[in-house]
């Protein structure tokens, strides 16, 4: 299949395929297109975004079955083959012989590359190692001084994931201030976000930049783009007095306040009605996982607010109302709220 045809056929399943590189399109045509067409016959749409628990379980099942099939003795060897140079050739041969790409993605309506990355995150033994000790923090500072921001190299030396060492170093090096944000800090944060967003807009569409620069308001870009992933370590550097996680939390707080225009949606009877509407709607959609919820659509249930606002209110509702919510599934939490909390709220209203 030629490149133009591949792009055209993939566009039905991946609307943004025109922005994907030629080499990636070729790989997707080989690994994904037939799968996508088969899912379409079954009435299943291709998915993006956060993986559900059901999908995580399917990935684990696929990996375990592939290990049994090939005799490879660990998921780490299968997914992080470069860590085992003496077994590298054998593992690559087994992957080809037993159709690794097809097997790892069975039953999951997502691009193969995303499934593979998710599998690596699930099975990487370096991912979930808890808090950094004082000794580890000192090692991290030493390795960064020696290797700069080569996080791949440092992650190997630390036996931690790339993201973990990068984020921890960002936190360590910052002159952390845990007090209330000053007006000057908040302004630096807003200026930093605007700067990186202008750069992203310019890269995506040069015509968008002029409209941004002409705007005289703070809300100079659509809601979805404001909530997308931002380069928080870069923003942290520009703010200077807070580390990246504080910057992210403050930005979401500032943005939510601006988007709601100061509406007190969760006060008095409005608060009760909003909670009732939220629980009812969540129950109706019968989602098995939070990632299956269209939070933008759901936000209309309680008012014209950003999805992060709704998600925060749902989080508060489950934490304050659902006993042992940490060990319950998403659907069990919704069921409890519907059966136990909803009657109580309706009576109060």
How many H/I helices? 20
Summing up helix and strand content along with how strands pair, one would put the structural category as: mainly alpha
Instruction: State the end-to-end distance.
Output: 62 Å
Radius of gyration: 24 Å
Name the helix and strand elements from N-terminus to C-terminus, one letter apiece.
Answer: HHHHHHHHHHHHHHHHHHHH
Count of structural domains: 4
Instruction: Give a short account of the largest sheet.
Output: none
- Indicate the overall shape: globular
Number of strands: 0
Q: Helical amount among residues, as a percent range? A: 55-70%
List strands and helices in order, with pairings.
Blueprint: H1 3-11, H2 22-31, H3 33-41, H4 53-70, H5 75-79, H6 88-97, H7 100-104, H8 112-123, H9 134-147, H10 151-158, H11 162-173, H12 183-204, H13 206-214, H14 223-226, H15 232-239, H16 244-259, H17 268-285, H18 295-302, H19 307-321, H20 330-348
Helix pairs in contact: 1-2, 4-8, 9-10, 9-11, 10-11, 12-13, 12-15, 15-16, 17-20, 18-19
What labels would you give this structure?
20 helices; mainly alpha; TTF1 factor; Homeodomain-like_sf; 4 domains
